Amino acid sequence: MSLPCGRFYTLGHISSLVYVRENINLWKICNPSTGQCFTLPEAKRRERFSWIRTFLGYDPIEKQVKVLTITGGHGGDNAIFDEHHQVLTISETDKMSWRRIECGTSHSPVSDGVCISGVLYYKAYKHYFPNARMMIVCFDVRSEKYSFVRVTESSLGAMEPETSLINYKGRLASLEMKRSFGEEASTSFDLWVPQDSGKLEEWSKHTYKFPMSRNEAIQDNKLYFSVVTGKNEIVLFPRKVSHPFYVLYYNLERKTSRRVEIRGLKELKGKKVFAYLDHIEDLKLM
Predict the structure, then answer these.
(1) Which residues contact 78 (CB under 8 A, 6 or more apart)?
(2) What's the pTM?
(3) 196 close to 135: Cβ distance less than 8 angstroms
(4) In this predicted model, what pLDDT tens digit does every residue of 96-145 receive, in sequence order?
(5) Is 120 exposed, middle or buried (CB count within 10 Å of its CB: 0-12, 13-18, 19+)?
(6) CA pseudo-torsion sign 224, 226, 227, 228
(7) Which residues of 242-265 are buried (b: 16+ CB within 10 A; e: fewer)?
């Protein structure tokens, strides 16, 4: 199914909805099940800004989808100014408008977000300095309040730039693909999980290697993470469509892998892939 958009970049996914950007000023919420899209109002920004990050969150209590947008940059004298934080509640019936919210801690987001049980998580540096220690930003979607977590020295590997924050059994986790030197083929991955389910400061690392036979190999060996299924399988996929096109399922308990062919994509060969295997079909746009 095609969407009524031009060239776009996906910014997030929640339940039945996908958040896409066609250009810096044109953002849309789309429902792949119906092919419907609607354009979001343009977010307010300062005259000068050097970056913009957007995240999609869901409040399971009020059953509301919200968009969080953060912009930042430099003033005319190169002095750093605080970011602009705004929230938009998605609605088909009410007029939508951006609301300014306060953060209290200046930070620069450096990762995609993942929303778990009404809390949006993403990685960020404090005060824009890349040599500063990475922290986890926790944004409560319902209250629209921020909190911040700094991991211990022994757990910094979970916050490396190459890691992705994921939903693992309803908990926040971190995953990093390992690639062979030179070929960049995916050979293994590290899964970091918090040692205490209620705290995010201490993490443990678990390494998994791909036991792939020749029949299980994928043409594009550089794989990317999609989702953890209810059967405790990590789903991995190539970045571009090939023919035939396969995704890889890795079972974390048995440490075995299997590949599954996705058919009907021959005409899309070479196109970039954004995989959302936890999509929930819903014929309502909202």
Answers:
(1) none
(2) 0.84
(3) no
(4) 899 999 998 888 899 989 999 999 999 998 865 556 678 999 999 999 99
(5) buried
(6) negative
(7) beebbbbbbebeeeebeeeeeeee
